[in-house]
Amino acid sequence: MADKYNVEEAEALAKRALHLPITQATPIYEQLLSLYPTSARFWKQYVETQMAVNNDDATKQIFSRCLLTCLQVPLWQCYIRFIRKVYDKKGAEGQEETTKAFEFTLNYIGTDIASGPIWTEYITFLKSLPALNPHEDMQRKIALRKVYQRAILTPTHHVEQLWKEYENFENSVNRQLAKGLVNEYQPKFNSARAVYRERKKYIEDIDWNMLAVPPTGSSKEEVQWVAWKKFLTFEKGNPQRIDTALSTKRIIYVYEQCLMCLYHYPDVWYDYAEWHIKSGSTDAAIKVFQRALKAIPDSEMLKYAYAELEEARGAIQSAKNLYESILGVSTNSLAQIQFLRFLRRVEGVESARKYFLEARKSPSCTYHVYIAFATMAFCLDKDPKAAHNIFEEGLKRYMTEPVYILEYADFLTRLNDDRNIRALFERALSTLPTEESAEVWNRFVQFEQTYGDLASILKVEQRRKEALFGKGEEGSPALESSLQDVVSRYSYMDLWPCTSNELDHLSRQELLVKNMNKKVEKTNQPHGSATIGSVASSSKVVYPDTAQMVVHDPAKKSGIEFSSSAKPVAASASNTFQSNVTATATHGSASTFDEIPKTTPPALLAFLANLPHVDGPTPNVDVVLSICLQSDLPTGQTAKQSFVAKGNVPSQNDPSGPNRGGSQRLPRDRRATKRKGSDRQEDDDTASIQSQPLPTDVFRLRQMRKARGISTSSQTPTGSASYGSAYSGELSGSTG
């Protein structure tokens, strides 16, 4: 479908046809117009090509094919040019034919907002007619007055210009008469001008050159659909307050224009037909449906709507033909069911029964047909025995269909046949696969809760658990009775034996238990490293090539460079961590996942160890949040201290390191500078930070401030000064 209606290819073909001889261009135009029969632009280009070679017969034939379905002003202007070209030199006969052509054109598109040039051309043509005597001159002026008065009442782009011309015309004929006519038509002109201004707002968003293609859901198509709907709603409101006949004509015109762009939209065709029906024009609605099925022959929706209209007006044979056409194209269960219902309505149950006996032999017949006919026999024909026989007949073929079992159970419930209901459930559950039996088990439990005694209720609930979750070990949480069972047992419709908060709490607990059981089953190792190992060994997870793994370094990403004399502890730790992981990743894939936990921060290990094991890429957010809230994760300070304590020693150039008094001692002038700086560090802390441009990583700045506060309170003054100066060096590097 997408290749067939390729808009870009169609545009390219149309451009290529412009430069080809008429014999080569004609097949291209015919191909384009077979796909886009409502494209006024392609029709206009086609007919202009024929007019250029003076092929009048072909031109007339093309106009007869497109004029009444393509109500667009440029195409009709082309038609006027052709008529004038043919008849201008034929004297009075030609003038009469041209006048008829103008009237024919204005009758169809005279209400278009862009029809002003045609009104102006018609007036100019009438003025050019010769008047051999005063009588003919008077007749010409009367004709001009009528055309002017029609034009100034039409909301077009040229309405104000036409009003000025009309005033001048009347004043040139008779000033006294002009005053009365102008005063009479002034309010009508004002109304037309106001409607024009409102109408203009609705058509600004409409793409008049849009090619009609089947809906694809693109944003452009949706914008056009909305714009046309708004425009139609506006016109249906009769904003100009004209009489019903003219308003109806105007709405028809807008619908026809809409279908030029939305030709393949079944909802537009249906709305058009429904509007005709509400307006009392059933015949017009039938014609719309016929055109719709020609435009969209595969639309079952439109066929059903059309058949409904024919049946409503008593045309049974036409409706039957439509149903049979649906069955001929698509022999599916829905078409069979709808035809069954139609036959019962119009011909009786015996005719429907005959068709059912024939339809059940079809390979495309499904359990839906059995359910539909059995329900029809029971509810409409009041024949429970026949319905029971139909369900039993279908049970032989559809014992493994849970929906069929449930519908049969509903039927038996309405018969109050509890013995056969239990027998049906037992037969079905002994046949259905476990993965498809949950819904049937739930209905069985619901039936026992409604009609059984307490012993049978508890027995069926236990059987359901064993069937769906397996017998398992004794004391398994899945087989134990829970408070959720009590809630399910003692609820009714939308009435619950607990509050909504309690119900939500129980649901969350049930979900947590399920995920906990999955985690216990798949891994019994409590430590984070074991959890990572179990995840790594899962066959359902695709892992990247860890040999290419590089630890993210914000300093490198943002272009921060540290001076050789002052590297921060965080940078050293980051480099150490990166080197460890890089070294680990190069040892081969066999020990990669065993080495990763050794280089992972403790806080991250604790977090990973507490995460539940889930299937798929998207875990349940509520479960993850619940686990996190219940976990006792290390704080940021504890993690950082333990991280530094495990061998992350600052570099030798760091003045706060352990070799502060050794061979790497700072020069005398730098030590003096640092002593002066340490005296003012606490007072100027905020000012020093504010004097520097903010680093790219705001979170990192916050961590540096926290680290500075910790060092000041826990170390000696000398150490605190050195430690603070290290971070000052980092900030200086970040700004450089």
UniProtKB/TrEMBL annotation:
One of its GO terms (biological process) is mRNA 3'-end processing. GO terms for cellular component: nucleus. Residues 4-503 form the Suppressor of forked domain. It is found in: Nucleus. InterPro entries: HAT (IPR003107), Rna14-like (IPR045243), Suf (IPR008847), TPR-like_helical_dom_sf (IPR011990), TPR_rpt (IPR019734). It comes from the Eukaryota. Residues 666-680 have a biased composition (Basic and acidic residues). SMART domains: HAT. The keyword Lipid metabolism does not apply. Residues 646-736 are annotated as: Disordered. Keywords: Nucleus, Repeat, TPR repeat. It holds the Pfam family Suf. SUPFAM superfamilies: TPR-like. The keyword NADP does not apply. TPR repeats lie at residues 266-299. Residues 719-736 have a biased composition (Low complexity). This is Suppressor of forked domain-containing protein.
